[in-house]
Amino acid sequence: MERRLLDATERLMRDGASFTELSVDRLSTEAGISRASFYIYFEDKGHLLRRMAGQVFADLADSADRWWRVAGRRDPDDVRAAMDGILATYRRHQPVLVALNEMAAYDPLVGATYRNLLTAITGRATRVIENGQADGAIRRELAAATTASALTWMVERTCQQDLPGAPASHDAELAATLAEIVWNTLYLGPLPPG
């Protein structure tokens, strides 16, 4: 049900509708469910958005995991693959992420959900940094949690600000730039040419 509503919401928003303009009736019709069914599963559109956010952030974390799960290899291609995946995931779910960012400003529950999801990603990145520091691959003078938070929010804000107005052809350059920044922030050697 959530996946159907996520897909329907993204389709409608890609066609130009803003999340705040979308009625429950329109979302339900697009997803092929009744309005009554919508309310069986969700309190309101904010609840739907919070649940969709969990799915989208799970996809983003899966993309980041392309690096995280093999970070001990110290391979810059893993960082590049993660950034490529994050940008592709952001691009695929851009309408929901834009709506989430907008609603977070005035819906306290959506704002808390957004922060909690990014905090969870920051926690995973912190563990990667700590493990890399323990084995000598990542600079030990870095405060792991602070660095993870800064890098996580840098990627999130960059995607929120740059991707909505940029063509998909911009993504490869942006992913390479983000990979370069992450690599040079964390690792002891320069990023080899890719």
> How does the major sheet shape up?
none
Percent of residues in beta strands: under 5%
Low confidence ranges: none
Report the mean per-residue pLDDT as an integer: 89
Can you count the helices? 9
Overall CATH architecture: Orthogonal Bundle
Helix content: over 70%
CATH superfamily grouping? Tetracycline Repressor, domain 2
Distance between the termini: 41 Å
Rg, rounded, reads 18 Å
Number of strands: 0
Q: What name is given to the CATH topology?
A: Tetracycline Repressor, domain 2
How would you spell out the order of helices and strands?
HHHHHHHHH
Question: What is the general shape?
Answer: elongated
CATH class: Mainly Alpha
- What count of structural domains? 1
Assembly type of the chains comes to single chain
- Structural class from helices and strands? mainly alpha
Question: What does this protein look like?
Answer:
With 194 residues, the protein is mainly α. It has a single domain (49-186), classed as Tetracycline Repressor, domain 2 (Orthogonal Bundle). Helices cover 73% and strands 0% of the residues. It has helices spanning 2-14, 24-31, 35-41, 45-68, 76-92, 94-104, 108-134, 144-162, 171-186. Helix 1 packs across helix 4 and helix 5 crosses helix 9 (171-186). The longest helix has 27 residues, at 108-134. It is elongated, with a radius of gyration of 18 Å.
